[in-house]
């Protein structure tokens, strides 16, 4: 696995509180986050949550994992991060989370599917997803039963947060992939709607 930490070794030491555990052998450091086009070879890009929240909307690579205090978890996920590490965390937790993201169990419409290395597998067959669709499905699965804002989905898919039609088209293709691999009822579990009490539109995965 190849993991990029945005910051220097002192930032890493603060996030892990100087953990004595060995660092992942494929851990690299960079002063700034990479552009989406430069992230194809990465399994994860970890960055402090304050820096993540300062990124311009719509440019977030799907491999971003934010790192910070517990009270910023909801804000970070709403902004489009793929996962969140509460400080302090250990190298073992980081590696475990990356492995889980590479091979994830997906619940939808009463079915259980798996997503591993971009391949979605259900009782009816296999379907390879592109990185954007995989990232969106992981985010939806992590927020199972809760509406995920379109803006957050746009961020992890690397499209403009203003391009609502582009998000809808990608969700339609993802729904088709769910149908192909697990059937109509599973596809219907990917629903459009609004976040309760707001006018914000989004999508969610449900049990039926």
Features:
alpha/beta; Arc Repressor Mutant, subunit A; 8 helices; Rossmann fold; 208 residues; single chain; 26% strand; 4-stranded antiparallel β-sheet; 5-stranded parallel β-sheet; 2 domains; 12 strands
Give the SSE map.
Blueprint: E1 3-6, H1 9-16, E2 27-30, E3 44-48, H2 49-52, E4 64-68, H3 73-78, E5 83-86, H4 91-102, E6 103-108, E7 111-116, E8 119-122, E9 125-128, H5 131-142, E10 148-149, H6 150-157, H7 164-182, H8 184-188, E11 190-194, E12 201-205
Parallel strand pairs: 1-2, 1-3, 3-4, 4-5
Antiparallel strand pairs: 6-7, 7-8, 8-9, 10-12, 11-12
Helix pairs in contact: 5-6
Per CATH, the class of the largest domain reads Mainly Alpha
CATH superfamily of the largest domain: Winged helix-like DNA-binding domain superfamily/Winged helix DNA-binding domain
In spatial order, strands of the major sheet run 2-1-3-4-5
Radius of gyration over C-alpha positions, nearest whole angstrom: 17 Å
CATH architecture of the largest domain: Orthogonal Bundle
Main pleated-sheet profile: 5 strands, parallel
Question: What is the H-and-E element order?
Answer: EHEEHEHEHEEEEHEHHHEE
The count of strands amounts to 12
CATH topology of the largest domain: Arc Repressor Mutant, subunit A
Total DSSP helices:
8
């Amino acid at each position: 696995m190849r993991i990029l930490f945005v910051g220097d070794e002192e930032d890493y030491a603060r996030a892990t509180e100087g953990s004595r555990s060995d660092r992942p052998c494929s851990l690299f450091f960079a002063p700034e986050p990479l552009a989406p086009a430069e992230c194809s070879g990465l399994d994860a890009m970890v960055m402090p949550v304050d820096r993540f929240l300062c990124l311009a909307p719509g440019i977030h690579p799907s491999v971003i994992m934010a790192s910070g205090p517990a009270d910023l978890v909801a804000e970070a996920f709403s902004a489009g991060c793929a996962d969140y590490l509460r400080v302090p965390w250990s190298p073992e937790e980081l590696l475990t989370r990356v492995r889980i993201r590479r091979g994830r169990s997906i619940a939808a419409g009463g079915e259980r599917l798996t997503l591993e290395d971009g391949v979605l597998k259900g009782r009816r067959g296999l379907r390879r997803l592109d990185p954007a669709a995989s990232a969106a499905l992981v985010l939806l699965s992590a927020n199972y039963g809760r509406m995920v804002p379109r803006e957050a989905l746009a961020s992890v898919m690397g499209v403009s947060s203003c391009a609502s039609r582009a998000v809808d088209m990608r969700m339609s293709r993802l729904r088709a992939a769910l149908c192909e691999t697990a059937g109509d009822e599973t596809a219907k579990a990917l629903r459009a709607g609004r976040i309760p009490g707001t006018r914000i539109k989004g999508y969610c995965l449900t049990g039926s």
